[in-house]
Amino acid sequence: MARVHLETIRKIYPNGFEAVTPTSFDIPDGEFVVLVGPSGCGKSTLLRMIAGLEDITEGTLSIGDRVVNGVDPADRDIAMVFQNYALYPHMTVRRNIAYGLQNRKIDKATIEQKVQEAATMLNLTEYLDRKPAQLSGGQRQRVAMGRAIVRDPALFLFDEPLSNLDAKLRNQMRIEIKALQRRLGVTSIYVTHDQVEAMTMADRIIVMNGGKVEQIGTPHEVYHNPASTFVASFMGAPPMNLLEARFEDGMVRINGGTPVMPAPAARTGNVTLGIRPEDVRIDDAGDIPFHVDLVEELGAHRLLHGQLGDQTFSIHAMKDEPAPQGATRLSLIPDNICLFDSETGKRI
Ligand code: ATP
């Protein structure tokens, strides 16, 4: 069993900076969790604490049934895949993959068999005698994966493993890593600042901001039910549109008075209205005026960017939907509107 449990884990660096505020969550055995957030939000610090590369200031970390706070990284039964792959340039692919097994008193024949199995899984058999310099970026990444796989760890930790690859290869590798993780069923924690990677790879996403967890949920939950304006604007490209709005006469009103939906009971004052670009329709009969400044053609769909009153706003339109330039009108899909507290940014 490799359930991972964090109980009020906190990190204060020696200079006094609190990089991770007390954080608790539970990762069931076999789950693929992605830690995502902007640069500096504390995701690498959290991962490094789990790996044992960084001391835990407070709290309890368990992997399986063991509390591992004081356990050496090598004894945590984890395998880590880094951004820079950490391959040995003077060793062949075979020796690089076998490297993690050599101090484990495993006989040569078993090591060779494990290397062959991993190489087959990763399509590396024909490269086993090459050195890393004779491989492409994607192949090097696979060697790093191979080294992790042969150790049969209880937990995989990935630290931005795809960020050195070009966009096309990144898309391909994220599918490969996800498929491999499914097949092996190993609990995995994957750190990235790329929200597309988070959405496409995760069983559950943990969104971090300023050393705190903002939301934990499935990609669907985090995207469609963001817990805060931070999550709403971090997840999705373009992000959720956020408009200043007001509760007035029992309605939510935007743009100086246009009603868009009934207000929750007994609410008054300001509110932030969130709506995803794909939940907006160009609609001649709509009562929201919109001015399209720029159309981005993306093949199967297009993005219309412009002004709603004095606020910037984006719309997602399929290729066979109208793409007006200049002045037009909109309607919003009321069921897909999210309301946030204007002061705290938290979901209402
Ligand atoms: P990135 O995506 O840029 O790697 P991150 O979310 O992984 O960012 P961390 O590397 O965990 O962020 O850093 C979190 C915060 O802790 C940052 O503000 C960083 O400057 C600070 N920090 C990291 N290492 C130390 C250290 N050794 N001493 C003091 N502060 C540190």
Describe the protein's architecture and organization.
It is a single chain. The protein folds into two domains: 4-234, Rossmann fold (3-Layer(aba) Sandwich); 241-340, OB fold (Dihydrolipoamide Acetyltransferase, E2P), CATH 2.40.50. The chain has helices at residues 43-51, 93-98, 108-121, 137-150, 167-184, 195-201, 219-224, 229-234, and strands at 4-12, 18-27, 32-36, 58-63, 66-67, 78-81, 155-159, 187-192, 204-209, 212-217, 241-248, 251-254, 258-262, 269-275, 280-282, 288-297, 301-308, 311-318, 326-332, 338-341. It has eight helices and 20 strands. Strand 4 (58-63) and strand 5 (66-67) form a beta hairpin. By secondary structure, the chain is an alpha+beta fold. Helix 3 crosses helix 4. The longest helix is centred in the middle third of the chain and has 18 residues, at 167-184. Adenosine-5'-triphosphate binds at residues 13, 15, 17, 19, 37, 39-45, 193. Residues 13, 15, 17, 19, 37, 39-45, 193 line the site of adenosine-5'-triphosphate. Belongs to the ABC transporter superfamily.
Query: How would you sum up the global shape?
Result: elongated
Total domain modules: 2
What's the CATH architecture name of the largest domain? 3-Layer(aba) Sandwich
Flag low-confidence runs: none
| Total strands | 20
The CATH topology assignment of the largest domain is Rossmann fold
Strand content: 35-45%
Helix content: 10-25%
The CATH superfamily of the largest domain turns out to be: P-loop containing nucleotide triphosphate hydrolases
Helices and strands, in order, run as EEEHEEEHHHEHEHEEHHEEEEEEEEEE
Count helical runs. Answer: 8
GO molecular function, one term: ATP binding
Pfam families: ABC_tran (PF00005), OB_MalK (PF17912)
Protein name: Carbohydrate ABC transporter ATP-binding protein, CUT1 family
Family: Belongs to the ABC transporter superfamily.
